[in-house]
Amino acid sequence: MSVFRFSFYLIVAFLFVQCKKETDSTVVISNENTVKYAKGFTIQNYDGYSIVTVSNPWPKANKSYTYILKKRKGIVPDSLKSNLIISVPIQKIVVTSTTHIPSLEMLGVEKTLIGFPNLDYISSEKVRALIDNKKIKELGNNQSLNTEVLIDLQPDMIMGYGIDNNNPTLDNLEKNGLKIVLNGDWNEQSPLGKAEWIKLFGALYDQQEKANELFSKIEQDYLKTLKIAQKALSNPTVLVGDMFEDKWNLPQGNSWGCSFIKEAKGNYLWAETTGTGSLSLSFETVLEKAKNAEFWFTSGQFSSLEAMTNANPHYNQFKAFQNKNVYSFIRKKGGVLYYELAPNRPDLVLKDLVKILHPELLKSYELYFFEKLQ
Asked: Which 3 state secondary structure label does DSSP give 98?
């Protein structure tokens, strides 16, 4: 073999190896799912793009949804181009649930919010300031979002949610060329699983590292409080809810809210019921079972014990009412902060409940979401 031919083969071999190395390095960073607790979505990271799959946006969803989040200069393989592609970081967003607001605020991107349905329901002080300054458009309600305003706003994407497989409003927006990403945080039943949806926002804003750090801190604080709760020497009985339209509404035993009571070492009196929704019972049924309950968490519609008896004088038949062990959510301008922020901050919810049920375990802690009714 001549020196020239040998050199030629070496060059070809060198180029082949280099090309192979470059090809490999541009494909995979880590295709392992980065989501730990949530059951409804996954995130897989590749060089230049991420694949987000939302598999459980509502109960009994009949399909999954795949979104490709393309970074600047990222190259999406042809095999993935049939999916919705969103350029990240996004600059303008519309969200449709107050539970989406805290993730924006925690990541420091609340100013990218340009539209929301029912602005009056938002509690966040930072977002309310933006509303007051006319930076966020009113979009009506979730069942009939204002399509004309949305088309005029031209958001990079709309964070939507559905309650079942029939979502005509979202379908109509997609037909008009708007990009919809479904969020199923409300369908998660574990406290940490619900909170972990901040990672979806982290991916959309190309801030996955920050989102992971935020969630990791919440996780650590939650698990630390869980260990503290194990030291409780009692398991006090708990009643939840109150009357609405002639029915007492209270959560079923497998629901998100009930998991907090259990982990805070409380004995929820309907914990044995199965399901993740709510129960509608008569006043007499609840009184018979929960008359002697030691603690009572109301739905948030009352601000005082007097307001409760004005609505229903029979509330004073409960031992928890007589002993003034009734707690409600703190209300703020715009709505009830608990409904907006609690899904993102299960660590604070658990601390609140441990403080209420076992005050000796968290002596210096002050309640964040709850207040004792007077």
From this structure: helix
Report the candidate in 235, 211, 186, 203 with the shortest Cα–Cα distance to residue 342: 186
Decide: 110 and 124 in contact? Cβ < 8 Å: yes
Cis peptide before 89 (omega within 30 of 0): yes
Token pair of 149 as six digits: 């305003």
Task: State the Cα–Cα distance between residues 47 and 146, nearest whole angstrom.
Answer: 37
Q: What span, in angstroms and rounded, lies between the C-alpha atoms of 63 and 54? A: 9
CA–CA distance, 211 with 52 (Å, rounded to integer): 15
Whole-angstrom CA distances from 313 to 198, 211, 329, 347 are 43, 47, 21, 35
Q: Tell me, what amino acid is at 111?
A: K
pLDDT in tens, 110-126: 999 999 999 999 999 99
Phi, psi of 6 (to 5 degrees): -65, -40
Q: Residue 16 in 3-state DSSP?
A: helix
30 band by pLDDT with thresholds 50, 70 and 90 = low
Task: Give the separation between CA 149 and CA 128, rounded to whole angstroms.
Answer: 20
DSSP state of 338: H
As a whole number of angstroms, the distance between CA 202 and CA 213 comes to 10
Q: Tell me how far apart the alpha carbons of residues 101 and 88 are, in angstroms, rounded to a whole number.
A: 19
What pTM did the predictor assign? 0.89
Distance of CA 189 to the CA centre of its chain: 10
Strands (E), 134-274: 137-138, 140-141, 144-145, 157-160, 180-182, 237-240, 242-244, 247-251, 267-268
Q: What is the pLDDT of residues 86-116, one digit of tens each?
A: 999 999 999 999 999 999 999 999 999 999 9
pLDDT digits (tens, 9 = 90+) for 311-367: 999 999 999 999 999 999 987 777 789 999 999 999 999 999 999 999 999 999 999
- Whether residue 156 contacts residue 87, with contact meaning beta carbons closer than 8 Å, is answered with yes
104, 95 contact by CB (below 8 A): yes
Residues 6 or more apart from 360 whose CB is under 8 A from it? none
**What share of residues in the chain are helix, strand, coil (percent, to 5)?**
40, 20, 40
Alpha carbon 227 to its chain's center = 24
Q: Write the DSSP string, 255-273.
A: SHHHHHHHHTT-EETTTT-
